[in-house]
Specification:
Elements: E1 7-12, H1 18-31, E2 36-41, H2 54-59, E3 62-65, H3 85-88, E4 93-98, H4 101-109, E5 120-126, H5 136-150, E6 156-159, H6 169-186, E7 190-196, H7 197-200, E8 210-214
Parallel strand pairs: 1-4, 1-5, 2-3, 2-4, 5-6, 6-7, 7-8
Helix pairs in contact: 4-5
């Protein structure tokens, strides 16, 4: 599990759960005693960003690189100069959490010179319960547009179809069906099926891709 390239880029539609996936991925790597950094390149969304959990992640030994302006509640499109270091430091297992949609993906375009094919993985996080990514046509539009903006190719699809704490087996299977269609059409493999462990354990079908249990770190206890 997590046998991916050193640089992992996480992208997708707003509300797909890419930040939750990114944080869970970083924590799993840290638990494997890896030297981990998570780079928050979301400069278009004010809420539910990786850097909101900076103190929590630091306690787990994870380096957090976000805005150069130390004000989490400000919506300022500023990226720390430290972000480029992660492309050069071969000892650093890196997760790059992009902003949602093609607009959010633009933040990565400035680092295109480092995106050599075969040296990174870029995952498209798919939530089939989002209105904008419920159909194959819509999913394809986002995949193509994000790739065009980044000037790089997706190497994996993450089925992260959920309804937060109310996620059911049917939700994950619905997302898998859509992810499989996108995979068959594009040749991009399904890399992970993400979800609450209690739900994943109920799935009897054999699915392509690894099962990826997650915790809802971005959701406070009082949130539904």
């Amino acid at each position: 599990m997590l046998n991916d390239k050193r640089i992992r880029i996480i992208s997708g539609h707003y509300g797909s759960g890419k930040t939750e996936f990114s944080i869970n991925y970083a924590i799993k790597l840290a638990e494997m005693k890896k030297n981990v950094a998570i780079v928050d390149l979301d400069v278009v969304n004010l809420y539910f960003r990786s850097r909101e959990k900076e103190d929590f992640l630091k306690e787990k030994g994870i380096r957090v690189i976000g805005s150069s302006i130390r004000a989490a509640s400000l919506d300022v499109p500023s990226i720390s100069s430290q972000a480029s270091i992660t492309f050069h430091d071969e000892s650093l297992e890196t997760i790059i959490d992009l902003g949602g949609n093609p607009e959010g993906a633009r933040a990565l375009a400035r680092y295109n010179e480092y995106l050599r094919e075969g040296y990174y993985d870029m995952f498209f996080v798919l939530n089939a319960n989002r209105p904008e990514t419920r159909s194959l046509d819509d999913v394809m539009k986002f995949i193509v547009k994000i790739q065009d903006v980044v000037r790089g190719k997706f190497t994996g699809i993450v089925n992260n179809t959920h309804m937060l704490k109310a996620t059911s087996v049917d939700d994950i299977l619905k997302g898998y069906d859509l992810a499989k269609k996108a995979s068959d059409l594009t040749g991009i493999p399904i890399k992970y099926n993400a979800g609450l462990e209690s739900v994943l354990n109920k799935i009897q079908s054999k699915l392509e891709g690894e099962m990826f249990p997650i915790n809802l770190y971005m959701r406070e206890e009082w949130m539904v």
